[in-house]
Fold each of these.
Amino acid sequence: MTQSDQNSSNEQHLALKERKNESYKIFDDIATTYDPLNRFLSLGIDVRWRHRMRKELPQKPNLEILDLATGTADVPLILIKNSNISKIRGLDMSKNMIAIGDQKILKANLEEKITLGIGDGCALPEKDNTWDVTTVSFGIRNFPDYFKGLQEMFRVLKPGGQIMVMEFSLPTNFLIRAIYLFYFRKVLPFIGNIFSGHGDAYSYLNKTVEDFPYGEDFINKMKEAKFIETRAIPLTFGIATLYIGTKPQVVKP
Ligand SMILES: C[S@@+](CC[C@H](N)C(=O)[O-])C[C@H]1O[C@@H](n2cnc3c(N)ncnc32)[C@H](O)[C@@H]1O
């Protein structure tokens, strides 16, 4: 990479970081088209990924789960199919995404088990050591400080609790990566921006993917946040990755 490429990459990184402070406002704007566009642009694969998350839940009764950046509650509505779960709390900064999630929960008659509220993933309105599992799907890369998000998830987990982070990543196979990047850089933003009616929501969201750590880099960040037994499960050629870790029973200072 030349010095000028490096400078422009640094500038782009800073511009994206700045915008992440209020990225939830973009979701307020695109909330009504979010679900149908997601299904269409991912060809429904995103639903399969969330089911994979459900399969990786700990095998324990009465699980209480906190889902960050819950959006329109797609994750809670799939996880709740696991009969071990007693309740799920979903938090997000976008009131419009949550309003749609609330309607879906009401329609599914699940308001006793799933509740949603406003909450910042970098400053959780939750007590220490209270949740069995914390989840975040396609949300953490939108946080202004994703490492703070990891630390917050660690703080609110009970000792022995499990973190699950699902996020986009880049396929390792050269050919698949090239095809994927063409779709991701050209096709997806074009369709997304038109159908969401938002000038550049999908261009911005896609840039955040290529700017975000994945694979071993993300696992190292989880370890730095003190998680143990960390692992990464690549999904669909590595287009997305599910990261899992555990909060130790005894936390070293
Ligand atoms: C791509 S959506 C993912 C929604 C959902 N988890 C899913 O899998 O469909 C990202 C969500 O992150 C939320 N978000 C952005 N910044 C946030 C923050 N600091 N704290 C909590 N949620 C945030 C947005 O409002 C948006 O609903």
Amino acid sequence: MKRILSAATALCLMAGMTACGSPARPSAAETPAPTPDEGLAEETTAGSHILVAYFSLANEQYEVGVIEMGNTEIVAEIIADATGADTFKIESTEEYPATYDGLLEVSRQEENDPPQIAGTVENMDGYDTIFLGYPIWWGDLPTIVKVFLRSYDFTGKTIVPFCTHAGSGLSGTPGTIEDICPDASVGEGLAIRGSTAQNDRDSAAQSVESWLADGGYID
Ligand SMILES: Cc1cc2nc3c(=O)[nH]c(=O)nc-3n(C[C@H](O)[C@H](O)[C@H](O)COP(=O)(O)O)c2cc1C
């Protein structure tokens, strides 16, 4: 089911969203205090030094109708399968609306009233590489992903961004990650159209595999 977009939203999507501006970043006072990691473990329980952390929503999404698994989650699973990484799904303590129009509204409200993340990564110190997945929202990272980045110390780690989108590509988000986490290295990102992830998983998997191989994450 394709929903009819508001004129402004339709224009943004047609323009690849790059001209639509980024929402103001919430101030430090508005975001939760960092969660300190306890202890310095050598390895995670699964023995992997790689984490795939991602935010992704099912239900109604642009171009793909009502879906059971979010577009970004599909890509996250492909990456985790290929690398043997652990996974962490970034979820809000409050449920998101099931409609696309509802999401458009809530995503704007969140910019001034950031969501809280349910659960924590148990041992962030055990990971040296974090694949970070998100949908592009308003040409930017969703606010909840910014909250995630401010909740841990990523010093010395490599963050490798991947996103799904409806025309914007990565839309400058690697630079935003660098701004939020100046002491981390940010790897080459991957952008996959949401409709490709949802409707053509083989093609998405091929893109993921060549990107992982180029980055030296798989042979
Ligand atoms: C609130 C909201 C804002 C969006 N803004 C953009 C955008 O600026 N550019 C773009 O290409 N796609 C945009 N999209 C489309 C999503 O990036 C795309 O549908 C994505 O694949 C959804 O991933 P998910 O199912 O993992 O949540 C937006 C979607 C929503 C819900």
Amino acid sequence: MAAAVALESRGVAVTLLEARRALGGRASSFEDGETGALLDNCQHVLLGCCTNLLDLYQRMGVGDNIRFERAVHFLDERGTLHNLAGTNWLPAPLHLAPAMLGFGALSLRHRLAINRAMLAMLRLGKAGREQLENVAFGEWLKQHKQPQRVVQRFYDPVLVGALNEQTNDASAKYAIQVFQDAMLANRDGYIVGLPACPLEDLYKHIPCKDVRCSTRVAEVIFNAGLVQGVKLTDGSIIAADAVVLAANHHAVQRWVPDEIKSRDLRFAGLAAFESVPILGVHLWFDRPVMQLSHAALLEGPLQWLFRKDAVGSMLHGVISASRDWVDVPKPVAMEQFERQVRELFPSARDAKLLRGVIVIEKRATFSPKPGVDQLRPQQGPPPGGAANLFLAGDYTRTGWPATMEGAVRSGYLAAEALCESLNLAADGRIVQPDLPVEWPARVLARRRINQLR
Ligand SMILES: Cc1cc2nc3c(=O)[nH]c(=O)nc-3n(C[C@H](O)[C@H](O)[C@H](O)COP(=O)(O)OP(=O)(O)OC[C@H]3O[C@@H](n4cnc5c(N)ncnc54)[C@H](O)[C@@H]3O)c2cc1C
């Protein structure tokens, strides 16, 4: 979608093919068989630092459908609320200092430990974090003397959801990026964005003239090392001057013949990505149980809960990096989720769970483990590669973990590469800049650079 919207805005005639009945891919909705309502496959959250995703929403005219919240709610195992709310009048990273000082879910000693780690991350800068690509974040946390309780009650709630990987196992580069971009650089980076409508509705007015849903590509047609077009499952052929493959990397591997793979390095690492599941559960109670719009849960099994209706009787729970849940029978899982909700909210104690629907996406995202960057292909063709074939998708080299922001960046990068190949690049960049780094963050980072000189 991002590539199509960007290319059309540059005057390229695009045909957007989507196998499913509606747009959105992994960030989309399905029709609930029982009620006919649109349910999201899983709650999708964005942050203020997702500058490209927000740009795409603006281009699609749905920027106003995202509800932003400056307070991130945490609930401990007893249901006590702890807010992390930045002050709007202080520049980053000072904006979160008052909230961190008063963050009652952790002792003062633990809050000071986090403070030390945040300063270290700030001083690393972007260049420093890039060098940690092959280091596990668990190792970095140990080096920076972060207590286990802090990992459980602070790093896990933030990172497991953001990266869809266990905190200790993720690449330190991506873990540190979450804090640098969302919390340390700009006062708006951390604000939580929640779609106020089903995800599917966000894409209904996509500014792309030729969108064909329920249209499945069966084959990509190559001739003399170039793409000629695609063949659909109904046998028809769509010819094209250039193709952006924006399907997942599993499909891409199937479509590209060995001959192309042997000289186009973009396909060399695709088979080595590890997929990580995400579990989402929709819960309907017979009365309002949750007033907060969202909550990060300091104890599991559910890691995040979201209120899905105006009164709080319909909830959605999420478990990221949910490998351990794939084989758990659904009634057993449901019993645990119901018990957890009852323990968290007094109003849920006598409430009846009317219905629950569990959705597990087994191949939700790739694991951002150390070394993963070597597998991620660039969007444009390398020398000797298929010159009119471009890749988009969260798995490509975006500098971001697998997120909607990463996916949009990949689409914009693919569009930039394609424009360059058509000599249409003069209009400047499509990829949006990050939020500006505010002055205290710049000053603190500079101190480190000066120390290194
Ligand atoms: C359960 C879950 C929860 C998530 N939560 C969040 C979150 O809170 N925040 C966040 O930022 N990210 C989240 N993500 C990640 C985010 O959804 C993905 O990173 C992003 O949607 C990936 O987009 P993509 O375009 O790379 O791939 P996809 O969304 O997979 O798009 C690929 C498209 O290609 C289509 N396609 C495949 N084969 C064919 C074919 N043969 N012919 C035509 N079309 C085809 C597919 O139908 C699909 O629409 C979550 C993902 C999952 C699964």
